[in-house]
Design brief:
289 residues, mainly alpha, f41 fragment of flagellin, N-terminal domain, two-stranded antiparallel ribbon
Length: 289
């Protein structure tokens, strides 16, 4: 190879090698900084596209989980209310049976009647108060009545629904609405035979309401268990999708750390090689001395 001060092939080769090392270092440093092996479509279009699709699915799963959690809260409130009403109905049934005894005096029947009115008010209060975020599965005929519906999967046509249980109408049928206590106060009449008959009639309607509440609780419990199962599945699916995204785009930081150290050594050697190549033309000066 001819000696020339115009063209330094060694320096150009050393410079190209040093530039390649610097580019590799930039890539490695970016992976370490972001934790991603594929941070943009420029890194790997196929993997990036797949990862973006999975990220979209992950966002949808989060929306489904939020919808299911809301439905679960509504249902759990209804279950709590229904269970409390079931307990109160048992107390009302017990007191009504006690009032059916024709041998009771008026004072005793009046006390029982007052207890029953109090229990009735508690039931109506629970029905009205079993509300979550504007949805009440126990109350019907009001502004907060209605069923609850939730997304079940990322397919928009798959939903999970739990119907309104209509406790307001059932309670009114059993012992009258909130302004009418006549069915209960009839137990306190002076005619013991008539009072016993009123107690028997009330006992029958309470039994019917109690059976309706049992059926309702079974439906609400089944719906709650279904929501819990779907939430557990969505949680597992979210973990699987997240892991899948990581396997596609996450960087192996241990590998990148080792690679960075190797590139730093290559960079230092490249700088020295370039320095040596740049000094080569100076040897020509010795020919002219």
């Amino acid at each position: 190879m001819a000696f020339s001060v115009n063209t330094n092939a060694g320096a150009m080769a050393a410079l190209q090698s040093l530039n390649a090392t610097n580019r590799s270092m930039e890539t490695t440093q970016a992976r370490i900084t972001t934790g991603l092996n594929v941070a943009s479509t420029k890194d790997d279009s196929a993997k990036y596209t797949v990862a973006q699709t999975l990220r979209g699915d992950l966002g949808k799963l989060n929306a489904v989980t939020s919808s299911l959690n809301n439905a679960k809260s509504v249902t759990d409130v209804a279950v709590a209310g229904g269970e409390q009403i079931s307990d109160l109905l048992n107390q009302m049934k017990s007191k009504t049976l006690e009032a059916s005894d024709a041998g009771l005096d008026v004072e005793s029947r009046t006390a029982i009647s007052k207890d029953l009115v109090s229990l009735k008010k508690q039931i109506n209060t629970i029905i009205d108060g079993s509300d979550f975020n504007g949805v009440n599965l126990l109350k019907d005929g009001g502004t907060t009545d209605g069923a609850v519906s939730a997304l079940q999967s990322i397919s928009s046509d798959e939903t999970l629904s739990i119907a309104n249980q209509g406790y307001t109408t059932k309670a009114t049928t059993a012992f009258g609405d909130s302004t009418d206590d006549a069915t209960i106060t009839a137990l306190a009449g002076t005619d013991s035979a008539a009072a016993a008959t009123a107690a028997s009639d009330l006992s029958a309607t309470l039994d019917t309401f109690f059976d309706e509440v049992k059926t309702s609780l079974s439906e609400l419990g089944a719906g709650s268990r279904q929501i819990d199962g779907q939430l557990a599945f969505n949680s597992n699916l979210t973990d699987v999708v997240t892991t899948g995204i990581g396997s596609l785009v996450d960087a192996d930081l241990a590998k990148e750390s080792a690679n960075l150290q190797a590139l730093q050594v290559q960079q230092q050697l490249g700088v020295q090689a370039l320095s040596i190549a740049n000094q080569a033309p100076q040897t020509l000066l010795s020919l002219f001395q």
